[in-house]
Amino acid sequence: MTVSRLKDIPGIGVDKMGQAADDAGNSDMLRLENLDTDLRPPEEALEATLAAIGRDDANSYLPFLGTNDIRRAATGRISATTGQPYDWNTQCVISAGGLSGILNALLAILEPGDEVIITDPAYAGLLNRIRLAGGVPKLVPLRVVDGGWRLDLEELRRAASARTRAVLTMSPSMPTGIVHTAEEWNAIAEVVMRTGAFLLHDAAMERLLYTGKPVIHPASLDGMAERTITVGCVSKEYRMIGWRVGWTVGPAPIMADIGLVSLTNVVCQVGIAMPGAAAAITAKDDGIATATATWKARRDIILQALSDLPVVRPDGGWSLLIDTAELGYSPVEAARLLFEKGRIAATPMTGWGSADIAGRYLRFVFANEPTERLGDIRERLRLAWQV
């Protein structure tokens, strides 16, 4: 690396596996490596985007913090979820995708050496952004309990220190699909309040739940609205990955700083994409419930087919993990064999947390392959791994 800020930032692995699958050009390859989906965005979003292409006001840098319509839509959605009032003009900044909003927030709240509590495993892109902003990830392990993931609450409490500046959460998370329980959220809130940290909440998948239970948003907890910064996007729930539109909503004082970072960093969002994003959020039928049922069906097929293997059940989101170390393979070797012999592209979790926890797993994304193509997944694994 030519600069020190990159020395602890590995790649995410998805790019290499995705490129290898593209290069193979094999239509029989199951594409389980990347967080894509084949499900269609809301019709209102498509119509608004097509109309925006010919509009002069959509072909502009202005307004730098996002159009009034989408800022109103984003704050309205979060207010409806949390029961907290948010002023669109002072408490919302639109970003070029959700992860751009995460980086903007980290740059606005971290001093070099500040600690950010985050789960292990966690998306490598989140870990890398903490490091890029000068922060230090403090990993809190997720444990497998009754076939699913649970947050280790004792380790969470031990992770808090005088250097804790933020707790970065995602529920459902990527890559594990953990959905935090009320007990876990209360423990997270206690750490935030005790340390005076911010809770930076990645809400990209918050309604993609397979538990039948309602969304718990941390800003709805007592005293947490003043400490919670929420980052959302249209990529996952609304199936609008290519639009690259996200939003950051939080307390007005810190949002002023986040707006300054955003203006200095990406400058502005995709002008022709924001009308479509606003239309999706306000659509009469956003399609999220129907899409979630489809993704759950795909998840269930894989869980049933691989029930004799060490797969951990996700309670939401788009992906699940299999413990290849338990089968005698490193995730990198397991991915290679699966690609060559099973015709499946899947991403090792190297760099997605610690070597002894995250480093045991291979990720399968089930959002982009229809059920009829998943029927022989167990046979593909048998051919690749002899299990």
TrEMBL record:
Give any Pfam family that matches: Aminotran_1_2
Q: Which cofactor does it need?
A: pyridoxal 5'-phosphate
| GO molecular function annotation | transaminase activity
Q: Show where the Aminotransferase class I/classII large domain sits.
A: 39-380
Q: Which InterPro entries match?
A: Aminotransferase_I/II_large, Kynurenine-oxoglutarate_AT, PyrdxlP-dep_Trfase, PyrdxlP-dep_Trfase_major, PyrdxlP-dep_Trfase_small
Q: Which UniProt keywords apply?
A: Aminotransferase, Pyridoxal phosphate, Transferase
Protein name, as recorded? Aspartate aminotransferase
